[in-house]
Amino acid sequence: MRTPEILAPAGSMESLLAALRCGADAVYVGGKSFSARQRAENFDAAQLKEAARLCHLYDAKLYLTVNTLVFDSEFPALDTWIEEAVSCGIDAVLVQDLGVLHRIRAIAPDLPIHASTQMTIHTPQGAAWAKAHSISRVVVSRELSRKEIAAVCQMGLEVEVFVHGALCMSVSGQCGLSAVIGSRSANRGRCAQACRLPFSAAGEKNACALSLKDLCLVPYVQELTQMGVSSLKIEGRCKRPEYVAAAVTALVQARNGQEPDLDTLRAVFSRSGFTDGYYTGVRKNMFGTRQKEDVLLAKDVLPKLEHLYQKPPSCVPLHMAVSIQAGTPVSLTASDSSGATVTITGEIPQPAKTKATDQAQLERQLGKLGGTIYTLQTLTSTCDGVSMLPASALNALRRDCTAAMDEARIQMRTPAVVCRPAPIHQKKPVHTLATSPLYRIALSTWTKQAKALLANENVDCLLLPISAAETVPAAYRDRVQLTLPRFCAEEAHLTQQLRGASEGGFSAICCENLSHLMLGRQFGFRLHGGMGLNLTNSESLLVCQQEGLTDVLLSPELTTAQARVCTGLSFGVYAYGNQPVMTVRNCPIQAEVGCRRCQHQLTDRTGRTFPVYCDRSAGTATMYNAVPTWMADKQKQLAFCQFLLLDCTLAEDPLSVLQAYVRQTPASFPTTRGLFYRGVE
To answer: What average pLDDT does this structure show over 406-427?
Structure first.
């Protein structure tokens, strides 16, 4: 059984030192760009190099987060940053964007890549996709139970699990709330934490129906170890060093079989206490906000935590051998248990006037290793009995020895990754402008209007959830794409649904996460890419082309100008509908008022209502934007798209929506242009 690493966050150099000095086995940091926590201080190239040196000195690894969605115009800067990061000596990189994955593979093929939790890998087939693409580790979605985590652990690659820190309400990588409300993209590191603002199913002014307590799985560390989890991850790159120190200390205690100090951990930061999240499958008492009492507890405990990381721990035993012979420079050889060995020479000893340098004096002077990570374990000496070295010479010898040992340890642990020249960014071809729009219409089920919709010459096909497959008449199944749920941990059930759909005459599916690519190919479906793949650039479209997708839906976070330059595969855009902004596994309405009082909506502090509907087949609920996106009168600006998606999932009269788009009619009710013009940070 492999002992899992303790993986700590560091948004600053002080937090990194806190993590290392408290016993973390690895640290993850972000750069000034391309990091999903842009509110953290983060690291430039010089700081990243120093961070890598410190980690390797402490026999720890350094992982760099490059886990944001990237636009085409940003790839030259990304290439430069990857090359700089590799030269700094990082041990692995975390990614969410398929295009970034493809780019890193081209530049640094030997650099280990970890799939960020924002890739929404939560099933064995998702892990299988990652393994097939030489991803060495997956950070599984935070919404998994112990049984679901254990299933992924059986797939033959490293599994990293969040065990402490903030929980997002939305399924990992599937949150658009911050973007639609304030143009701050959670998937680009700019989340405004809109879920912490007041939302209520009952109209309560101060209710925070989307705010979850912080996760704490520290009591389950031994169980996670038994199931084969490789890495125990702490969330918190925007947190203080004291928080990092407390979390790492608690995990070290738990991993060693000791009773962890949960009281201190709770005091340093919590939102009305902790939750075990989805791990046990119970999902009770998960909601909470930060209260005055929580703040006061932190003020009391923070000063007391500084002692945990103020000084380097004496954690590396050294074996020393000293030779003092007349007429020859003193020689000191030191080694540690990992095999790092250095030899230092110093001054020529002097004839002893009173007392020759002996074993006891050497142990006293060379054992003064405070302020370093070393402690003297053994010392052997060869002294001629007639020579002496002053204390100053021995002190200099000790300092030179520890400095050389630092460099030896760092060199031993710094990976040798070679970068290739970045591929040249090709000039983008000009899109062929569509003479007339081609629509794909999403419905919640087969309706009386479905036949009329398909009869329109401008309609390419309908999209229906796979749970509604049986409602589609056999004669029309070749004109329907079955949409798979963005999050569905019951993969066996989904596999059964796909088998039935294949046998029932369906030929196309819309893939909303990476596991769907594996499942779809298994049953011979024609693959289309949905919004859940988070596609924002040409590199990601190229990957989708290589994966055999016919076409894809671009991320709604792109402006028209950003979408226009995307090439590599046919694509469409989200042109109408109440855009899905959250996929949740713990329904906030059920938690606040119960299912019987459900009005299928949440109200925010401004009075806006956001529709919420359950998908019982997938075990999730979806929260939608308060108003629909409307681009009927702006379609000429979308003529570069191969199709437009009209999401009529919540529309009372889909046929009227289609007619309005065919006529290019302005809206007569409150709508939004989405992010087509204002974009996201």
So the answer is: 88
Q: 309, 16 in Cβ contact below 8 A?
A: no
Looking at the predicted structure, is the pLDDT value of residue 411 above 60?
A: yes
Same fold, 5-167+212-308 and 439-579+625-663: yes
Q: How far is it, in rounded angstroms, from Cα 371 to Cα 173? A: 43
CB contact at 8 A, 75 and 540: no
Phi, psi of 597 (to 5 degrees): -100, 10
The pair of structure tokens assigned to 387 is 């020579």
DSSP SS3 for 28: strand
Q: Which pair of tokens denotes residue 298?
A: 């932190």
- Sign of the CA dihedral running 182, 184, 187, 191: negative
**Which residues share a beta bridge with 63?**
28, 92
Q: Which helix (H) or strand (E) holds 319?
A: strand 316-325
Q: What are phi and psi of 630, to 5 degrees?
A: -135, 115
From CA 292, how far away is CA 266, in angstroms rounded? Answer: 14
Alpha-carbon span 524 to 146, nearest angstrom: 32
Residue 153 in tokens? 């652990």
Q: How far apart are CA 175 and CA 188, in angstroms?
A: 11
Alpha carbon distance 544, 29 (integer Å): 29
Tokens encoding 243: 């928080």
DSSP state letters, 302-318: HHHHGGGTSS----EEE
Whether 269 contacts 208, CB under 8 Å: no
The 8-class DSSP code of residue 596 comes to G
Handedness of CA 367, 404, 52, 317 (dihedral sign): negative
From residue 560, alpha-carbon distances to 179, 573, 642 in Å are 16, 9, 14
Q: Rounding to the nearest 10 degrees, give the CA dihedral for residues 492, 496, 497, 501.
A: 150
* E strand or H helix that includes residue 572: strand 571-577
**Residue given tokens 């029932």 in the structure block:** 504
What is the residue extent of each domain of the chain? 5-167+212-308, 316-411, 439-579+625-663
Q: Say whether 224 sits in a helix, a strand or coil.
A: helix
Count of beta carbons in the 10 Å neighbourhood of residue 550: 14
- Given a contact cutoff of 8 angstroms between Cβ atoms, the answer to whether 97 and 65 are in contact is no
| CATH of segment(s) 5-167+212-308 | 3.20.20.70
434-461 tens-digit pLDDT:
667 799 999 999 999 999 999 999 999 9
pLDDT at 425: 65
Contacts of residue 290, defined as CB under 8 A and 6 or more positions apart, other chains included, come to: 270, 271, 272
pLDDT score for 473 = 97
Q: Which of 69, 196, 115 is nearest to 675 (CA)?
A: 69
Asked if 128 and 518 touch (Cβ cutoff 8 Å), the reply is yes
Model-level pTM greater than 0.90? yes
Cα angle, residue 262 at apex, residues 256 and 263 outer, rounded to 5° = 145
CATH fold, domain 439-579+625-663, is TIM Barrel (3.20.20)
Checking DSSP bridges between strand 620-624 and strand 580-584, what pairing results, if any?
A: antiparallel
C-alpha span between 326 and 351 (Å, rounded): 7
Local structure of residue 419 (DSSP, 8 states):
P
> In this structure, what token pair is assigned to residue 578?
């109440």
Q: Please return the burial class of 82, using the count of CB atoms within 10 Å of its CB with bins 0-12, 13-18 and 19+.
A: buried
Q: Write out the H or E segment, with its range, that includes residue 62.
A: strand 61-66
**CA 644 to each of CA 211, 303, 413, 441, 459: distance values in angstroms, whole numbers, following the listed order:** 34, 57, 51, 8, 10
